[in-house]
């Protein structure tokens, strides 16, 4: 079953028990685009991380690095922003639950279905649809952003310009600053793209106390975030032609912004975002608004039922087919797991 337990010791959210009542949907919040320079400035001088191992159906596995939650908490304490009176938006870091209605929607933890999504994406055969070069990719309600981190870890292995847009959206700017962006920095550091930065360390005598952990995501470690690393990251991203963008705010506002700007994507991903029925119309409108064509790769990974919160696959498919929305879609189950809490990945076809 499903729960909103919140435990700083545990970075992966696993479902155990239900909650008593469905909390209200988060309020409408304006979209704020967080510039890359702001996210780089928000990084602490060191980040600690641990491996996330994702088994694949082929018997192989994918391993990614993810910033430790306790490390994000430590950053806030050392910056003096852990005082919840001074920074009320951050009180979810102390909350006993995974959800603080209207404030925090569980994005600091990696939810199980985001790992399913990585497994599914990794299993897709190479085709014009799955090739990342030249694509515009959006992850909605990204939280720790593990599916995007996986795709970026592939892009960071490329030698030449990939001309790819990877955009990430979450309700909370603090989630994007504290976890999502650090995870992308880690994906870069673990990739061939950071080789020059790592190799040239021998010429940087002034950086004696800098940590250069092995670029192996299977090993936990600490990475020093120096001005040289930030410049090397920015230069790599520019050289590869990767356009990274980060948006905080609610789904209704983001859909309005995409509509007014005419922004579209070729691959739209989301996981563990259909848990609340009253949020479904805004999410579906956003999925629809974001897709550049009726049959682009639009994937929704979710538990079949979110006990106590009301949402789940049937509520989602019903809302998707409802005439109440300006868009109408059909959900095709492309992956499922019937062990413990049933989980699915749906591909959306707009009609
Ligand atoms: C349960 S978490 C899942 C996070 C991540 N996708 C994963 O699977 O690990 C739900 C995410 O959706 C975002 N979210 C939920 N409702 C939202 C809304 N109405 N507008 C914007 N974001 C929302 C939250 O900020 C949160 O990160």
From TrEMBL:
Protein keywords? Cytoplasm, Methyltransferase, Nucleus, S-adenosyl-L-methionine, Transferase
- Compartments, as annotated in UniProt: Cytoplasm; Nucleus
Question: Which superkingdom, per the lineage?
Answer: Eukaryota
Gene Ontology molecular function: protein-L-histidine N-tele-methyltransferase activity
Top-level EC class as recorded in UniProt: transferase
Q: Which Gene3D superfamilies match?
A: Vaccinia Virus protein VP39
Q: GO CC terms on record?
A: cytoplasm; nucleus
Q: What is its EC number?
A: 2.1.1.85
A Gene Ontology BP annotation from the UniProt entry: methylation
Its main subcellular localisation, reduced to a broad class, is cytoplasm
- Indicate yes or no for the key word Methyltransferase: yes
Q: Which residue stretches, if any, does this entry annotate as coiled coil?
A: none
For this protein, the record's InterPro entries field holds:
Methyltransf_16, SAM-dependent_MTases_sf
Give the similarity note.
Answer: Belongs to the methyltransferase superfamily. METTL18 family.
PANTHER family assigned to the protein according to its UniProt record, in alphabetical order: HEPATOCELLULAR CARCINOMA-ASSOCIATED ANTIGEN, HISTIDINE PROTEIN METHYLTRANSFERASE 1 HOMOLOG
Q: What is this protein called?
A: protein-histidine N-methyltransferase
